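On clarity, I found the account of how folds are encoded harder to follow than it need be. An entry of this sort, consisting of the sequence and the corresponding backbone structure tokens, reads as follows:
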Amino acid sequence: MNRSGYLGIDAGTQGLSVIFTDDEMRILAHGEGGYEMVPGLAAECYEQRPGDWEAALRTAMADLRAKLTATGITPDVKAIGISGQMHGEVLADGVGAALGPARLWCDGRNEAEGHELTERFGVKCPKRLTAARWLWTIRNRPELAARVHHLTTPSGWLARCLTGEWTLGIGDAAGMFPIDQATLDYDARLLAEFDALVAAGHGGPAVRQLRDLLPRVRKAGEDGGRLDAAGAALLGLPVGTPVAPAEGDQPAALAGSLIGLPGMVSMSFGTSVCANSVGDRPFRGVSQAIDHFCAPDGRPINMVFLRNGTTPMNTVVEMFGKVNGAGRGDAFAAVMPQLLAAADDCGGLAALPFIDGEPGLGVSRGGSASLVGLSAENATPGNAAKAMLLATIFNLRMGSDQLDAQGFPRTEIILSGGLTKTPALGQLLADAFDTPVTILDGAVEGTAWGAALMAKFRAEALAGRSRPWPEFLAAHASGTPTRFTPRPAAVATLAQSLARHRRLVALHTQLAESAP
């Protein structure tokens, strides 16, 4: 039985997945392929081989096709979407061959270059930015840099393998180099600044100007190419199948959560926390706590990232479980109801959640988490666990301070990640941010589904049915979301607790000096 639909590809840090959806975006089957980091590298060095991504894609497609065949489905793919881990550095020569392994978003070798570009540009350039990686390569591997004709990301590499073209979605492109919101292309002034910096300090072999290396920028719905003969053979699909602009995992995840309008915020709580806010204008200046990229349609995205996510709360829960001899699952079953029942002020108990450092808040030392204000009355598992979770939420509020100061809208929080395993915690988040919270039916659709959505958007554009990106996303809402509205009394109580938390964070360095 032939079924028409869309193919979504996601190349993550741990492996690659593909999905096939029907026309209504219901997932009919998925496939997976794996790969590893390049072994034997020094600490802070993380690389993968582009050829391994291609092999994983071939494996995942075989897995997908086997599962579809088992259910009697023959896929008729209308369009293909691609997402991948952002901020990578994939280098290629003049004929498009990879020049060795690719450095990934988590590779830490170019922190100094990120700080240098931030200071020179007056625009936040985190060490993850591909341009910071490229500046490091020019300085530390000049012979390699001289051979480079193309610079792209993992998703851009897969797009090249499938279409033969060097293009990239604007969200992923913004993770390579700052985007000018007036032109929705790389910032021409900053490109000139970058090339001037290289020319002034580079004494090795000549390297090409960055503007000539970067992939062409494309927005959602625009031309990302079509399968050429090599791409068709790789996927087992017809030559000429349309491909949407390849995007980064963060923009694809926003698509998968149907987030498109200014004021909508995607918050994912897990081991770390990521809050992506759709802006109605560019951010002014530089904030240590806030990074910037773009949504698939080019709207500015402001990202607050925390290293300390649910781990501090989990640590407290597991600690009480160990005292009682309970396993992890039993500990959560026992403590989470107590957390939900605890008073909004945790009986006066407060916490600092710094299991790890938190660079965005100026906290450089981890292993310094603490509970403050412990008394005989408030010493309960529920209060302790809730205080740790609130401390993480308050850190997110503090990271968002400059967004609030510049008047960026915050109309709705869409919550995903591990916190949704206890959906009632959405109420705590709504009260702490004084903003409605929504948990989508299923909580996390995933980046591969977001990629498939981008494929459908491209197919509609080709068919002459273009519509605004936010309108397209809203039309794909399904199920019955869980919603929480702020409670005025709880909002007032948590505002007082937030003020106390700010004072504690200001004292953290002194407190940390007493830690072992």
Notes: The radius of gyration is 24 Å. The mean pLDDT is 94. The first helix runs from residue 50 to 70. Residues 272 and 307 are 5 Å apart (CA to CA).
